[in-house]
Amino acid sequence: MKVGITEHTLRWYERIGLLDRIERGADGRRRFGERDIEWILLLVRLRSTGMSVRDMQRYAVLVRSGAGEAERLALLEEHRRVVRAALVAQQECLDLLDNKIRSYRRATRAADEEQ
Amino acid sequence: MKVGITEHTLRWYERIGLLDRIERGADGRRRFGERDIEWILLLVRLRSTGMSVRDMQRYAVLVRSGAGEAERLALLEEHRRVVRAALVAQQECLDLLDNKIRSYRRATRAADEEQ
DNA sequence: CTAGGCGTTCGAGTGGACTCCAACGCAAGT
DNA sequence: ACTTGCGTTGGAGTCCACTCGAACGCCTAG
User: Fold this and answer.
1) CATH architecture of the domain with residue range B7-114
2) Chain A residue with minimal CA distance to B102?
3) Which residues in A79-99 are b (16+ Cβ under 10 Å) and which e?
4) How distant is C1' of C3 from CA of A28, in Å?
């Protein structure tokens, strides 16, 4: 089952309370349900866009409690702000990279033509 | 002088060879030149878009040597690939966040109206 | 019955990127 | 002269997010 995270990390996430205790089969092995996978995918996306594990824990606590909608909203909105800022920074960096790459290409081509 | 990095980190960057030895004034203090700042800004941008310090070191070595254009190009292109991928992931996450936020807003509003 | 292989547990270890600290130097203000 | 305050150094320490290891359980194949 690929979710973009190693088994080790998955187990670790469970240990630190990011995941509710995953149900075990008769043999003691984890049986991930639909909802588990859904939740894990959300976590992976939050994590891969730079949310700290600590903040994911805070969010997880709120979700588990079933209440704290306002706080959850605040967390998500803050993260959205961060992601948006990162997006802008990345776009800028991308432009810069394109320029540099172009200039290297030009330099290389010029050197080739001198041969 | 704000470049998006602490003094500590700046000194550390110098120590680990990311920066050439910065010129010191008569009093022993660093005097950053135009080119230094330029270079630092590039580093900050690469770093903030997820390039590892190690890779920045590799790049710095190549730049310092003055040669290795092909390798530099490869490094930059690889990073561009990574940044593009991250951009896509972030955009996806952003959409997801927007949805979640909307749904929280709806839930909150509905609850308010019940009062 | 044994061996192999996978999954389990929790504590410990790792790697990356800072971040801090103590000791010191120098220059200006009182 | 003395304190304040900033900057310098290199080593050490911290924080984060994994990642690994050792001991164990359970099933299946031989």
Assistant:
1) Orthogonal Bundle (1.10)
2) A73
3) bbeebeebbebbeebbebbee
4) 22
